[in-house]
Amino acid sequence: MKIDNALLVALEHLRALAGKPIVVHDGYRCPAHNQEVGGVSDSEHTRGMAADVSIPGLSLQQMYELALQIPTFFSGGIGAYDSSFLHLDVRMHSARWARVRGQYVGIQSLVNTPPTLLAKIQGAPGIGSQPV
Q1: What is the C-alpha to C-alpha distance for residues 52 and 105, in angstroms, rounded to an integer?
Q2: In this structure, what are the phi and psi dihedrals at residue 82, rounded to the nearest 5 degrees?
Q3: Separation of alpha carbons 25 and 17, rounded Å
Q4: Residue 61 falls within a domain, yes or no?
Q5: Which domain holds residue 89?
Q6: How many domains in the chain?
Q7: What is the pLDDT of residues 36-68, one digit of tens each?
Q8: Where are the beta strands (DSSP E) in the chain?
């Protein structure tokens, strides 16, 4: 079993940002256990690249917003689950989803996606409203 070091570093950054311990519900899974728990066949869990976590005292929305501040998670996978935990992984591309009552849906079904910095700037009064 090998856990990706980038995952461990990113989880430590998340813990430091939250200022409190993180509960890791699930990390590496062998393929057989992954199938037993309903994981997708090519899950990052089976490669040691994912963890399912929660942070006591924080809402799903708060955890999601913190995870987005960690560059490795921002550019990797973040899934929100209706049982109040996040799946975080260090895949090489961005992916977002939610799982509600056993069905995979868009992440906005469980959390609000914060506006990007560009959207904030463009929406600010007097900024981006005048042609250049």
Answers
A1: 18
A2: -70, -5
A3: 19
A4: yes
A5: 5-123
A6: 1
A7: 998 888 899 999 999 999 999 999 999 999 999
A8: 23-26, 50-54, 77-81, 85-89, 95-100, 103-105
Angle between helix 5-18 and 60-68 (nearest 10): 120
Q: What distance in Å separates the CA atoms of residue 76 and residue 86, rounded to the nearest whole number? A: 13
User: Does residue 110 lie within any of the structural domains?
Assistant: yes
E strands in 6-125: 23-26, 50-54, 77-81, 85-89, 95-100, 103-105
The enclosing domain of 99 has a CATH number of 3.30.1380.10
Residue 132 lies in a domain: no
Q: Identify which of 8, 130, 13 has the alpha carbon closest to the alpha carbon of residue 70.
A: 13
φ, ψ (nearest 5 deg) of residue 59: -75, 165
57: left (phi over 0), alpha (psi -120 to 50) or beta: left
> Do 50 and 77 touch, CB atoms closer than 8 A?
yes
Instruction: Please state the pTM of the whole predicted model.
Output: 0.85
Confirm whether 81 is domain-assigned. Answer: yes
Among the listed ranges 20-24, 41-45, 81-85, 90-94, which one has the minimum average pLDDT value?
Answer: 41-45
